[in-house]
Amino acid sequence: MVKGDHHICYSLTCELCGAVYKQRSSVYRKAVWKNRCPKHRGKWWALDENNVPFYKEPLTPRQQKPSLVSSVCTICKDKFTASEKIIARYGHRCSLHRSKYWIVDKGGHPRHKKPYDREKGRLNAKVETCVDCGKQIWVRGVRCKTCSNKHRGLPARFCVDCGVRIRPHSSRCLACHNKDQNKGASSARTLFTVSEAWHKVRQQSLKRDGFSCLICGKRKTKSRSYKKRVDCHHILSFADFPKFRLVVNNIATLCATCHSQWHFNEEFRINNLLKVYNCHER
To answer: Among 87, 105, 173, 235, which residue is least crowded by beta carbons within 10 Å?
Structure first.
């Protein structure tokens, strides 16, 4: 024991390397490694066969090799080795037959039973029946679509043109709706909008109207948003009057909102007829 200026120090010998070192009494009482020098303090320091200290690095969970168990597959009868966790999870099955759909047929051969049912045409899922009509529906359902519409009080609706049953809030089926909208001119319309002749006529009509809507006066901007867009409207319709498609006096400049109101709102169209029909006088 050596007395210092302020603290009492102990002279100790390391149990690994045999070196003599000094340590204060206050630190020695709280120290975990009391018989080791500062160099060899740690639980991974140990002595080898020749009594030489060495540092044994700890293994990570990936480096630690699990204990392997040899077993026999219940399906193919082949021997395999796997860890205890895998056997507890999948049972005694090799890596090829760990799926739950592998079974053994009557002849003792492994066979993969697919979860697809040909009669239902979908996966083997639990199905329920409709409360009203008894039709099969998916899980967590109460009624089918037709019965749910009746239960809500929505009457059955049929297409105006072909008579096919449709959704309660529509007037035509999808095929008749496309025919009514395009009128057989969808392919011709795409070729027309790409042509150079339409591009020249469109620029002439926009310059004539000052790149602004004839009804509300909204001006065209560089933004691509729907509200700030300006369209070119054919006064005589594109599908019914193909001869007047490239006539400048047949084209009026309208914004996107006014253009949609013109086609779907009759009162709006009647109130703004003169503004659109007199566009050639500008």
So the answer is: 105
Mean pLDDT for all residues in the chain? 78
The string of pLDDT tens digits covering residues 122-174 is: 444 556 788 888 887 766 677 887 788 777 777 778 888 888 888 777 778 88
Q: Which residues are CB-neighbours of 197 under 8 A, at least 6 positions away?
A: 246
Q: What gap in Å lies between CA 205 and CA 201, rounded to an integer?
A: 6
Q: DSSP letter for 194, please.
A: H
Provide CB contacts within 8 A for 140, sequence distance 6+. 128
239-243 contact pairs (CB < 8 A, 24+): 239/182, 239/183, 239/184, 239/185, 240/183
Spatial separation of the C-alpha atoms in residues 132 and 99, rounded to whole Å: 39
Structure tokens at 88: 């507890």
Domain locations in the chain as residue ranges: 2-43, 68-113, 189-281
Cross-strand partners of 129: 136
The number of angstroms, rounded, from the C-alpha of 41 to the middle of its chain's C-alpha atoms is 53
pLDDT tens track for 194-220: 889 999 999 999 898 888 888 988 887
Tokens standing for residue 185:
């001119």
Q: Strands, DSSP E only, in 56-107? A: 68-72, 79-83, 102-104
Q: What is the total residue count of the chain? A: 282
Element (H, E) at 228: none
Neighbouring C-alpha atoms within 13 Å toward the C-beta of 83: 7
Reported pTM: 0.36
Pair 89, 72: CB distance under 8 Å: no
pLDDT of residue 274: 86
Average pLDDT of span 114-122: 51
Question: 84: part of which helix (H) or strand (E)?
Answer: helix 84-90
More confident residue, 1 or 229: 229
